Amino acid sequence: MRILLWHGYLLDGTGSNVYTRALAREWSLAGHDVTVVSQEPSPERYDLGGAATARPELPGGLLPVFVLDRYPGGLEARLLQDFTAEERRRYVEANVAALRELLPADLVFANHVLMGAAVGAALGEPFRVKAHGSELEYSIRGRPELEAWARESLAEAEAVYVGSKHIREVLEEVAGHVDPVVEVPPGVDIAEFVPQARAEALAELLEEARRDQANPGNAEERLPDEGNAARFESFFAKEVPTVVYFGKLIENKGVQLVLEALDGLDARAVIVGFGDYREELERLAAEHHERVLFTGPLEHRHLVHLLPLADAAVAPSIFPEAFGMVAAEAAAAGCPPLVARHTGLAEIAAGLEQGYPEHLRHLAGFRTGEVPDLREKLTELLELSASDRAALRAAARRTVEERWSWAGVAARLLAPVA
Q1: CA-based nearest residue to 319, from 361, 260, 277, 376
Q2: Distance between CA atoms of residues 289 and 294, nearest Å
Q3: Domain boundary among 134, 150, 183
Q4: 10 Å Cβ neighbour count for 213?
Q5: Average model confidence (pLDDT) across the chain
Q6: Would 90 be classed as within a structural domain?
Q7: What is the pLDDT of residues 8-55, one digit of tens each?
């Protein structure tokens, strides 16, 4: 098949970015002719399986986003809901023009209800769209003009994909009835995220950190912190129970709960990511001193070695989540995830529970926003016997292999829709 994979953003740093490059790689390796259309200025940095790339020029450099971040390459990020109708029109026209230059195609696959479905509908070619959830919750919900536009755009799609039952329900609430809607969860590269022995994982993490681009004064928030290699070497010199969080550093992700839960625990934490809440999190962590390490954002090449060094990965979000890819990635690396039991994260917990030994199933999740329950579950996880720890790690890995591999996900997205 000739596939145009449209994504309005970069190819790293967030779930939908990782999703896009994973699909490009899997579809390309399966023999399809794929072109990724995104705003990534350096696509050569990523393994796209041989997919071609294109980057539309945006009018005025304006990029509609759902959470404000700084973007490279002269782009000005502005919340979607703050775009005027004329600015939205120009953005869609610019992306449609870029796609038309790449036609013909058997399929246009677009990410995000807005702007993805709007671009697909305006193109006038068969298209499928993936709703990621962030656009629904952060920008479209409660804004009648955007809700109507989403509904009209989705009506033109050949199929709408959601990653979880929760997002199916949110889509119905925000955009009204859509048909057909197909539930296909995101995936994990099970050849990349694998369990590793501690010594091997640490040596390879240090090697990857030494390869990082210079970032004096941590001026670039999308780059790993300066000096991570030396800091990792010192931090992991002793074996101490370790908890990891990786994702955006914004208040809704609930990272502050992890820091509060550390009180009274003989444990330390690694906090990975970037976002406007980092400064406040560092202030909260100051009382823990050397027990909390902030790294800035890390790429998969780092994370695949960091996760095997941790005893638990916490996904503590206090805001609705479409799925919880970070938890699935941790599980694939044999690092048991502990997730807040709500929305798409609860579906991750339910999948893990089915694979866990019965007496350990309660350790897949904790009550949303409740620090005492998080602390209690972390205590149990960190104090597991060697045999129980091995059983939990193996079960987490096995669950991902059975449920969330990228190869299976990519194939399901191209299957005929009834």
Answers
A1: 277
A2: 11
A3: 183
A4: 8
A5: 96
A6: yes
A7: 999 987 889 999 999 999 999 999 999 999 999 999 999 999 999 999
